[in-house]
Amino acid sequence: MTENPPTFTRKDFTSDQEVRWCPGCGDYAILAAMQRTLPQLGATPDQTVFISGIGCSSRFPYYMNTYGFHTIHGRAPAFATGLKLSNPDLDVWVVTGDGDGLSIGGNHLLHALRRNVNLQILLFNNRIYGLTKGQYSPTSKLGQVSPSTPLGALDRPVNPVRFALGAGARFVARGYDVSKKLPEVLTQAHAFGGAALVEILQNCPVFNDGAFESVTDRKVGGAHQLWVEHGKPLIFGAEGAKKGLRLNRSMGLEVVELGDGDDTGDLLVHDETNPNLAWLLAGLEDIPGLEQTMAFGVLFRSDAPAYDDEVHAQVDNAVKRASAKKSSEKASANGAKSNDLNAMLRQGHTWTV
Ligand SMILES: Cc1ncc(C[n+]2csc(CCOP(=O)(O)OP(=O)(O)O)c2C)c(N)n1
Ligand code: SF4
Ligand SMILES: [Mg+2]
User: Fold this and answer.
1) pLDDT tens for residues 237-292?
2) Of the four, 79, 106, 235, 262, which is 20 to 30 A from 123 by CA?
3) 130 lines ligand 1 (CB under 6 A)
4) 1-211 in CATH: which number?
5) CA distance 62 to 179
6) Which ligand is nearest the CA of 125, by number?
7) Which residue lies with its CA nearest to atom 1 of ligand 1?
8) For the chain, what are the domain ranges?
9) How far apart are CA 294 and CA 224, in angstroms?
10) For a pocket test of ligand 1, which of 22, 102, 125, 132 has the largest count of ligand atoms closer than 8 A to its C-beta?
11) Alpha-carbon distances, residue 324 vs 136, 317, 319, 333, 347 (angstroms)
12) Percent of all residues in the chain with a pLDDT value above 70, rounded to a whole number
């Protein structure tokens, strides 16, 4: 680390590669948000890595002037875990799609989350397989007509936020491609010292245009966005027609019409450390009357030790213990010291059958 670290700009994080997304793709806005946010975080290109799987979204690392791996389908969390463990100083971001992260890679994503590996995992959700020309994905809506579901999808969709909560993730947030607040969500994810899952709603104008229109539309979408803030009442809606959320007697959410200046006394207050509340907020669109509404921001955050820190602490302790124990002992038959892995592997039989 130099005493006066250089100040980087968006341009420093922009690669010279030709961007190959379709015109109007939501991925452009996410890329721009990331390139703008990294300098604000004090990130440096040589300490930053983007790791992706396969999909349109997974082309992301090419366009970042950082280190990067465009890996194999669904395996980005596994590569990222290995990299973070072997070089903990690196700032590791994972970019995955709804197909990459929740179909073939669902298993890998689950384990990175439950282990709380110190990674920022961005799941670009366009509710479709974009790269392979529009087949339905695990987040596609029931009845979605696509080349692989010509009569309509029969499977119930995965909710990525609920998937992450169920996997034991300690940081779960949601944003959308063209949102002005996306940099803030990315910043919060970066500040978290563990696996931070951010679902980013992303429009695919070619194969699933307008999938999130009700919440992202520039004119009317704002009224259907509930941006949560820790310690603040859960309020959303258009000016003059504000609504709030409270718990009903069966522990479900219900809407309270507020209008102007109504009492917010019995409204729920967002507690980002409460996973049950996060679960409810993640599925607002399942509540009758809220089909068009979604919650955004940091839905859940609860500190826990990062897996990579714990692995390093465990190894350091083991090495120290072994060194202390063996320093007074003679080396084993062929000279292997207990904390010398190479020597140990070459010392002969390691067990007897
Ligand atoms: C092992 C394997 N199976 C299937 C594919 C084909 N394939 C490539 S990308 C993809 C899905 C991409 O969808 P998503 O992750 O949602 O990314 P998007 O293109 O929508 O950004 C599939 C099925 C592949 N490349 N490798
Ligand atoms: S197919 Fe869809 S997701 Fe892929 S680049 Fe084109 S617009 Fe974007
Ligand atoms: Mg997709």
Assistant:
1) 998 889 999 999 999 999 999 976 666 778 999 999 999 999 999 999 999 999 99
2) 235
3) yes
4) 3.40.50.970
5) 23
6) 3
7) 73
8) 1-211, 224-292, 307-345
9) 6
10) 132
11) 58, 11, 9, 19, 20
12) 93
